[in-house]
Amino acid sequence: MALSSINNTELTYQDACEFLNYRENKKQFRNKIKEFEIAIEKHCKENNHEELNKKVKGDIEGVITHNFADGQYIRTAVAPKNTLVSTKIHTKNHPFFLMKGEVSIFGEDGVKRIQAPYHGITEAGTKRILYVHEEITFITVHRTDCLTVDEVVPEITVDDFSELKLEGFDIKQIDKIMEQIQ
User: Fold this and answer.
1) What range does the domain containing 82 cover?
2) Digit-coded pLDDT (tens) for 4-49
3) 111-127 burial, b if ≥16 CB within 10 A, otherwise e?
4) Is position 42 within any domain?
5) Which of 55, 29, 28, 31 is nearest to 41 (CA)?
6) Are the C-beta atoms of residues 163 and 120 closer than 8 Å to each other?
7) Does 69 map to a domain?
8) Which of 67, 107, 101, 115 shows the shortest CA–CA distance to 87?
9) What's residue 138's pLDDT?
10) Of 73, 128, 155, 172, which residue has the fewest beta carbons closer than 10 angstroms?
11) Which residue has the higher pLDDT, 126 or 69?
12) The domain that contains 130 carries what CATH number?
């Protein structure tokens, strides 16, 4: 189906330009997050702060708890004030709940500052940077048949955007249209 037939509207040149700009901004954001993580890792290695690097990546045990119940993986993270966290790349849509605290979420669609209580949906293909203003308790819930953290993590996250295999949307069609426009 052609994009111009969606909702019986015509695809204008302006629509195509806005879409291309959106896609380019998304690409730039993803590249900036990679640069940010590399800079943090380099800084931590040069200054013997390996634990800080793990903290930024959310890899410190004790602040993360894992629970499984009836086909669900529930992950609870507690992060102290003034913490910067780089999230993993999510492969599936899932709900999140901010139970305590205040956090700014830097994502492809800008910055959003939220306070508990708050809930939302993390969309597949999302990676964000969080800045914690006040200590937070952040819970995510994921549908899975896995029973261990080692099994579930590769199912619900990837390390690089090139590994994403999102279903339900044919990106090749958009690429073809973009080739025709350019």
Assistant:
1) 58-163
2) 334 445 656 666 656 656 666 777 777 777 787 777 778 778 877 6
3) eeebebeeeeebebbbb
4) no
5) 55
6) no
7) yes
8) 107
9) 94
10) 172
11) 69
12) 2.60.120.10
27-39 per-position pLDDT tens digit: 777 777 778 777 7
Half-sphere exposure of 139 (CA within 13 A, CB side): 15
- Number of domains composing the chain: 1
27 part of a folded domain: no
Would you call 172 helix, strand, or coil by DSSP? helix
**Cβ-proximal residues to 75 (8 Å cutoff; 6+ apart), any chain:** 64, 65, 66, 139, 140, 141, 142
Please indicate, yes or no, if residue 76 is contained in any of the structural domains. yes
Are 49 and 114 a contacting pair, CB within 8 Å?
Answer: no
Report which of 41, 109, 101, 51 is spatially closest to residue 77, judged by C-alpha positions: 101
